[in-house]
């Protein structure tokens, strides 16, 4: 099954950008994401329309995050990329004539709607600042583990 990984990928790109003091080029971001710079530019153009990133032209130009990380949620990004389908499963037919299938669709649609509301609420609680803090905590933990392992190798 093919998953839509755009949200995850864009969050990845934005967290890399958040750690940069200079604008980041589409080429640099494309290398990090193992994709084509055109794909990055297309995504960033959509984010720019929503006021989430800005571009700077010329030598030394590139992309920057346009808002404070604490004000940007995963839901903001999700909506900026067009609110893609959350679930990879769905009804066999959308307008069935069979009463059994109508019952199945009604139950599934209710469950999907409830699950989507909960997921979008959670997306609205997670900020880029929280993701960045988690990333930095993991980096610190890894550095501490490596330092500890180096010390135990010497002993």
CATH-defined topology: Arc Repressor Mutant, subunit A
**Can you tell me the number of structural domains?**
1
CATH homologous superfamily classification: Winged helix-like DNA-binding domain superfamily/Winged helix DNA-binding domain
Number of helices: 6
Identify low-pLDDT runs.
none
Averaged pLDDT: 90
Pairing-aware structural class of the strands and helices? mainly alpha
The CATH architecture is Orthogonal Bundle
Strand and helix order = HHHEEHHH
Query: What is the helix fraction of residues, given as a range?
Result: 55-70%
* Separation, N- and C-terminal Cα atoms: 50 Å
Q: From the alpha carbons, calculate the radius of gyration and give it in angstroms.
A: 21 Å
- Please indicate the percent range of residues in DSSP E strands (runs of 2 or more): 5-15%
Which word captures the global form? extended
CATH class: Mainly Alpha
Number of strands: 2
* Sheet with most strands: strand arrangement: 1-2
Main beta sheet: strand number and arrangement?
2 strands, antiparallel
Organism: Microvirga terrestris
InterPro entries: Tscrpt_reg_Rrf2, WH-like_DNA-bd_sf, WH_DNA-bd_sf
Pfam family, one: Rrf2
Protein name: Rrf2 family transcriptional regulator
